[in-house]
Amino acid sequence: MLRIAICDDDNFVCSQLEEILLNLGEAYLEKLDIDIFYSGMELDKSIQNGESYDLIFLDIEMEHMNGVEFGTKLRNEYENEITLIIYISSMENYAMQLFQARPMDFIIKPLNYEKISKVFETALRLILKDNEVFQYQTGHTVCKAPLKDILYFESVNRKINIITTRRKDIFYGILNDIYKNLQAYNFIYIHKSFLVNYNHIVKFEYRQVTMSDNRILPISQQNRKAVRSLQLRIERNK
């Protein structure tokens, strides 16, 4: 599912763009979750409240906080380099102002199906290309960690420690939800508090595993048989 935001102070443009996107979603068999905002301030408030988007269609000429101001804030203050921005405007002379927001594309109004279809196809390709990453949020910052770099997840109360080859980070989440998304990528539940990447296990023992960062993690008694079965299955598949 793609999370998309439309931000334009023109009701007609928002409705038109939403209808085109929903049709494109059906055409590409991609489920879309679309939020509409009529000012940059509304969109900014949503981001502050923890919402995140894969793609934002952003009008430039808006009062109070225009599209350039919001886009620059998203990149620099919220440190979000992941969300794709497509600017829409009735004027073409914004090239230099848009540079700091690093948009994916720029569409001149009036909008039509052909214009939106072209940029949507490109955006979809870029977003799906990054599918083999784990996305999480810390504060207002959306982060992505390549699956191959993740060693393990550790659950501590309602917080999750994610340990990668580069760093350790903390976010709010539920370990079982993470497992449901990552089990197809050889992530193994060895303990109610540990979800590990099989590819980063350097030593398998009956009661424990040693990870590539040399940390030894326990295999709970109730998980030992299942872990052994998963180990054998993964080795067979390899």
Secondary-structure blueprint:
Layout (H helix, E strand, L loop, with lengths): L1 E6 L3 H17 L4 E6 L2 H9 L6 E5 L7 H10 L7 E6 L5 H4 L6 E4 L4 H17 L3 E6 L2 E6 L3 E7 L2 E6 L3 E5 L2 H8 L4 E5 L2 E4 L3 E4 L3 E4 L4 E3 L5 H14 L1
Parallel strand pairs: 1-2, 1-3, 3-4, 4-5
Antiparallel strand pairs: 6-7, 8-9, 8-12, 9-10, 11-12, 13-14, 14-15
Helix pairs in contact: 1-5, 2-3
Describe the structure.
33% of the residues lie in helices and 32% in strands. It has 238 residues and is of the alpha/beta class. The strands form four sheets. The chain has a five-stranded parallel β-sheet. A five-stranded antiparallel β-sheet has the order 10-9-8-12-11. Helix 2 packs parallel to helix 3. 24% of the residues are buried. The mean pLDDT is 89.
Shape descriptor: elongated
Largest sheet: 5 strands, parallel
Report the C-alpha radius of gyration, rounded: 22 Å
Spatially, the strands of the biggest sheet line up as 2-1-3-4-5
Please report the total strand number as a whole number: 15
* Total DSSP helices: 7
Strand content: 25-35%
| C-alpha end-to-end distance | 30 Å
State the CATH architecture of the largest domain.
3-Layer(aba) Sandwich
Pfam families: LytTR (PF04397), Response_reg (PF00072)
Function: Required for high-level post-exponential phase expression of a series of secreted proteins.
Domain Response regulatory: 3-124
GO molecular function, one term: DNA binding
